[in-house]
Amino acid sequence: MKPCIFLLAAGLIDAIFTHVGISTGFIKEGNPVMREVINKGWTYFYLIKIFLPLFLLGLFYFRPFKGMIRMLLISTCVLYLSVLVYHVVWVILYFNTSI
Predict the structure, then answer these.
(1) Which residues contact 29 (CB under 8 A, 6 or more apart)?
(2) Alpha carbons 9 and 15: distance in angstroms, whole number
(3) Which domain covers residue 82, as residue numbers?
(4) C-alpha dist (Å) from residue 14 to 24, 28, 78, 83, 94
(5) What whole-number distance in Å separates Cα of residue 62 and Cα of residue 48?
(6) Helix 2-24 vs helix 67-98: angle between axes, to the nearest 10 degrees?
(7) pLDDT tens by residue, 25-75
(8) Mean pLDDT, to the nearest integer, of 12-21?
(9) Which pLDDT belongs to residue 70?
(10) Strands, E, within 4-91: which ranges?
(11) Do the beta carbons of residue 71 and residue 29 sit within 8 Å?
(12) Residue 82 — pLDDT band, cuts 50, 70, 90?
């Protein structure tokens, strides 16, 4: 359950950082699928970032993940953590170049 909650929180933090970064022109979306979603509207972007982890939470509630599925979920959390670290780096770079 904790990895699913982490993915929800990380997704929201990622969405906010991405929105701010793109709005300020400091970054561009690297994922071509999400770039198209953002082009359609930020609401869709946020819905995806919230809905997918909530869907995982719902699946986990009815049938806890074990074995290979749990390992893939943990791997996803590690990858998402690296994305968040990347966001922190560009935020630091942004503030250093803005001053």
Answers:
(1) 18, 22, 35, 38
(2) 10
(3) 2-98
(4) 15, 13, 14, 8, 16
(5) 21
(6) 30
(7) 888 898 999 999 999 999 999 999 888 888 888 887 777 778 888 888 888
(8) 90
(9) 81
(10) none
(11) no
(12) very high
Q: What angle do CA 29, 32, 37 make, to 5 degrees?
A: 80
Q: 3-state class of 27 per DSSP?
A: coil
Exposure class string for 18-32: b at 16+ Cβ within 10 A, else e:
beebbeeeebebeee
CA distances from 71 to 3, 32, 78 (A): 10, 27, 11
Tally of domains within the chain: 1
The closest alpha carbon to 80, from 22, 21, 17, belongs to 17
- Alpha carbons 85 and 47: distance in angstroms, whole number: 23
Please list, residue by residue across 61-71, b when 16 or more beta carbons sit within 10 angstroms of its beta carbon and e when fewer do: eeeebeeeeee
